[in-house]
């Protein structure tokens, strides 16, 4: 993160997903960035299972692989890469999947992390380490960060109550954060997950998106947004694209949220 970007805060976010029945987005990343720029989006958040890369491959993408012929935007692109052909390629700490954040004009990702844990029942020590390393590994700037799929289980819910359990003081850790991207692999169907994301959005905006997969049912829209505890998914405007029939792109103007 450069010093000039330490206070970076997204203004318009492009949210991108695809159908798992189709190929990954390897050959389309540049066109997606160009589409994002045409809608003045400074940040691109991809659903997970984004781009296939053979296990152990030392491939270094050319400078225009992610940003194409864009000139100003996007400034940051967040996506997942790894061996998508691996049957174990889930939100699992044992997989070789990595979440990467690329900054404009960067020759390598500014963030490249494995998922810390995926389930509520994860060992408390893993959750403690996640919180302790959050600023270093999950913040893009002081105001903007991300959570990698099941890491939203850092907080818990309470039955018959709207309150959450925050045994690791995570909400205090993100007190200064104003935007959180929470890309996931599959559609978060459990009510408790929505409750957690909604709780995390108090004091900030939270955006989540997931890969489209018929096995988990097809939601009307493949993304959600929360702002100060409210569901503001309707504020995400889907925009037409010619990238591929299964690719869907939504744009969220954060200034429009009240």
**Number of helices, counting only DSSP H or I runs of 4 residues or more:** 5
Q: Termini distance?
A: 29 Å
What percentage of amino acids are in beta strands?
A: 15-25%
**What would CATH call the architecture?**
4-Layer Sandwich
**Secondary-structure element sequence?**
EHEEHEEEHEEEHEHEEEEE
List unreliable stretches of 5+ residues. Answer: none
Instruction: Supply the helix-strand structural class.
Output: alpha/beta
Average pLDDT number: 90
Write up what this structure looks like:
The protein has 258 residues and is an alpha/beta fold. 17% of the residues lie in helices and 23% in strands. It has helices at residues 29-38, 64-67, 124-138, 170-173, 191-200, and strands at residues 12-17, 43-46, 51-52, 76-82, 98-103, 111-113, 144-146, 156-157, 164-165, 179-181, 205-209, 223-227, 230-231, 237-239, 248-253. Strands 1, 2, 3, 4, 5, 6, 14 and 15 form an eight-stranded mixed sheet that branches. A five-stranded mixed sheet has the order 7-10-11-12-13, covered by helices on one side. A two-stranded antiparallel sheet has the order 8-9. The longest helix is centred in the middle third of the chain and has 15 residues, at 124-138. The radius of gyration is 17 Å and the shape is globular. The two termini are 29 Å apart.
Keywords:
Nitrilase/N-carbamoyl-D-aminoacid amidohydrolase, single chain, alpha/beta, 258 residues, 5 helices
Strand and helix layout:
Elements: E1 12-17, H1 29-38, E2 43-46, E3 51-52, H2 64-67, E4 76-82, E5 98-103, E6 111-113, H3 124-138, E7 144-146, E8 156-157, E9 164-165, H4 170-173, E10 179-181, H5 191-200, E11 205-209, E12 223-227, E13 230-231, E14 237-239, E15 248-253
Parallel strand pairs: 1-2, 2-4, 3-4, 7-10, 10-11
Antiparallel strand pairs: 1-15, 4-5, 5-6, 8-9, 11-12, 12-13, 14-15
